Amino acid sequence: MDPGAKEKDAFPCTRVTGKMEVRLLTCTPDFLRVIWCAARTCYSHASPLELWEKEVPREEMLRLANRVIRSGHLSVVEHCSMTFAVAGVSRALLAQYSRHRIGISLSVQSQRHVRAQGEGENAPFPHVIPPEIAAKPEAKAVFMRQLAAAQRAYEDLLAAGIKKEDARFVLPGGAATNFVTSLNLRSLLDVYQKRVLAPGAQWEIRAMLETFAALIVAREPWLAPYFPTVGEESH
C-alpha cells in the first residue's frame, strides 16, 4: 500500500536550515487521488465526480501517476498545489526564484514599507552570509564591515528625509527577506530540476528547494524518486 494513504501530518510543517526557515502552510490533501482523477477524466466516459467517488486501489493510482510523470504529460499534476512561508533568505535568492514565473505565486516582504534595522545596537539589518565567506574570518570581516556601512548609509538617508523606498537602494543583495509562495507540482518539479539538479545551482536556492521537496515528500512519499537529493546527509 502506498504510504501516501496514511493519515497526513497536521499543518504547519517546518524545517530550519541555518537562518532559513521554511514552513509548509497548506497543500492539496491527496496528490495521488487528484492526479488519478484528472488523468482518468481525459480518457473516460465517466464524469470527474463519478471518478472521484470511485473506490480505487492506491497501487492503481500510483501506477497511473508515475506513468503520467515519466511520460512528460504533466498538465494533470498542475492540480496539486502547495503554499510555503519562507523566512531568512537573501534578496539574491528572491531574484533567482522570481525568474520562475509560470505556476509560481509570490507575496514578498516590502522594503518600501518595512524598515531595515538590526535587533541590537549597532547590529546591521537581517542578512544572509554565504558559507564560503563565513568560513574565512578575514572575508567575513570584510563582509560585515560592508553591511555596517550600508546600514549607516541607510540610516543617514532616512535622517535626511529620504523615503524608505529610495533609501533601500543602498542595501545589498545579502539583505534578508521573507515571502509566501504558492506553486503547483509541475512547477516544483521544473524549478527543482533547474535549481537543484542542474550543474552550478547556487547553495541558497538549492537548499530552499530541497526543503520544499522534503516537506512535500514527507506527506507524499511516492514522490521521493522525483526529488533524488531529499534525504541526503550532505549536499
How would you portray this structure in words?
The radius of gyration is 21 Å and the shape is elongated. With 235 residues, the chain is of the alpha+beta class. The model is unreliable at 1-7 (pLDDT under 50). It folds into 2 domains: 3-108 and 176-226, Gyrase A, domain 2, CATH 3.30.1360; 116-174, no CATH class. It has a 5-stranded antiparallel β-sheet with strand order 1-2-3-5-4. Helix content is 42%, strand content 16%. The protein is built from 9 helices and 5 strands.
Q: Which value, in Å, is the CA radius of gyration?
A: 21 Å
Rough shape? elongated
* Strand and helix order: EEHHHEHEHHHEHH
CATH class of the largest domain, named Alpha Beta
Structural class: alpha+beta
CATH domain topology of the largest domain? Gyrase A, domain 2
Sheet with most strands: 5 strands, antiparallel
The poorly predicted ranges are 1-7
Portion of residues in beta strands equals 15-25%
**Mean pLDDT across all residues, rounded?**
91
Tell me the number of helical segments per DSSP (H or I, 4 or more residues long). 9
In short:
With 235 residues, the protein is of the alpha+beta class. The protein is 42% helix and 16% strand. The protein has helices spanning 31-41, 48-53, 58-71, 91-97, 131-134, 137-159, 164-167, 185-197, 203-219; strands at residues 13-17, 20-27, 81-90, 104-108, 176-184.
